[in-house]
Amino acid sequence: MRVILRGDEFGTALVQGQYMKPRGRPTGPRMLGHGREEPPVVELALTRAIEAVNAKEPVEPGSFSIYDDDAVLSVCWSGGGGSVLASISTAGHVKLWQVSARRDRQWRLLRVLRDPAEGAIDEFFTGTFLGGAGVGPGGRALFAAAGKRKDRHRWDAEEGDNAVLPGQVKVFDAASGACVLRLGPGGHTEEILHVASRTVGDANYLLSCGQDGRLCRWHLDRTWTRLLSVRSVRLGDMAFHVDCVCAGGRELVLAAVDEEIKIVELGTLRVLGAARTGFSSYCDWAKVLRVDEAAGRVQLVLRGVELLSTDTLAPSAPNCILVAELDVRRGYELTVLRRLQHPAYQANSWLLRPGLTPNGHYLAAPTAHGRVLVFSLATGHCTALLHHHADSEVRQVAFHPRLPLLVSCGDDAHVRIYFAPQPPQ
């Protein structure tokens, strides 16, 4: 019996057990959101997401990978069912791939998003699908991307590169590939390191943070294509990552800034407090794991970078990932619950972003030397080591929210795809 699940973010039919062609329609491939045509189809060989990675439940690399023109700094699943993967490249484009759970099926390139009107050099670092399911009204799929813009005609001798221009967040229509909105004035003066979206009631917010240490809140209309207002606050020297949470009766932004976590009220952008993480250089990633609303506590996973020893140029402390608890009611005190460490976890570069299994039990941590280490958050033990990138930074790891898939991307311009072994049908 075939089970068809509809209502995915691009109107995609999710078919369990086999690939199914839409009835009464041509069998050729379709792009996203073309009027009233039958939507594309993604087969699902298994709908259960990866819950653990260890010796008993391993993941294996697929027979193919995605190759780009330059470093791929981040990846992002579309909301809802995750039928599309976005790979975000310093080549100045975002590629959208149709996802398949079959290890023998090459993923199909759906669309390349780039801004043809951009006169500067574009390098994309980060991106997100907009809205809870990555779709605006009428089924319009939207994607926001940001990174570094460089002047083609001006050289920065100190940096040894083209001069950096003020950063912009660009919103693309995923169906047409058109850039429908550019967010710049009133925002960042340097490159943008992370973007995230948040909807509170009827208000749509796009959040960005960057190398200028600023957090910007872009208030967009219901279609995510028109700017209503922009506000920003400087939080420190460098702002690397933001995550949002409703805790203590407030909508909060938790920002990884310098070596701290800054707690900011979303509605006013008022800085409520700061918590030191213990990393000697930077804390460049902070992700909410769970919330205990009754106790006023938020459990976080934090990643950071250590200062280098002047004698050996090695990190002054072993690299680690922290599982911590933030008290949002009394002074924003941060308590470390567990340290995830391993001799092979050498990750003293910033902008390396781990991934969590959908159930929050395991974490896959990228390194600066082509490896990905998987840790159990319950025990702190390393349960798996993946080494399929070149000997350079792995930038991000992401577990699929519904399928038995794991992807990693890095400076070697590859997106590696891993599959969990499937039980007999």
Structure at a glance:
The chain is mostly beta strands. The protein has strands at residues 3-5, 13-16, 41-44, 60-61, 66-67, 72-77, 84-89, 93-98, 108-113, 121-129, 135-136, 140-156, 161-165, 169-173, 179-183, 192-200, 203-210, 214-220, 227-234, 239-247, 250-257, 260-265, 271-276, 282-292, 297-305, 321-327, 334-340, 355-356, 362-366, 371-376, 382-387, 394-399, 405-410, 414-419.
Total strands: the figure is 34
User: What value does the Rg take, in angstroms?
Assistant: 21 Å
In quaternary terms, these chains amount to single chain
Give average pLDDT, whole number: 88
- Gap from first CA to last CA: 12 Å
Strand content: over 45%
* Poorly predicted residue ranges: 1-46
Main beta sheet: strand number and arrangement?
6 strands, antiparallel
Helix fraction bin: under 10%
Identify the overall geometry. Answer: globular
- Overall structural class, as computed from helix and strand content, comes to mainly beta
Number of helical stretches of at least 4 residues: 0
Written description of the protein model:
The protein has strands at 3-5, 13-16, 41-44, 60-61, 66-67, 72-77, 84-89, 93-98, 108-113, 121-129, 135-136, 140-156, 161-165, 169-173, 179-183, 192-200, 203-210, 214-220, 227-234, 239-247, 250-257, 260-265, 271-276, 282-292, 297-305, 321-327, 334-340, 355-356, 362-366, 371-376, 382-387, 394-399, 405-410, 414-419. It has no helices and 34 strands. The radius of gyration is 21 Å and the shape is globular. The strands form eight sheets. Strands 10, 11, 12, 13, 14 and 15 form a six-stranded antiparallel beta sheet that branches. Strands 4, 5, 32, 33 and 34 form a five-stranded antiparallel beta sheet that branches. It has a four-stranded antiparallel beta sheet with strand order 6-7-8-9, with no helix packed on it. The relative contact order is 0.13. 0% of the residues lie in helices and 50% in strands. The chain starts with a strand and ends in a 6-residue tail after the last strand. The chain has 425 residues and is mainly beta. Strand 14 and strand 15 (179-183) form a beta hairpin.
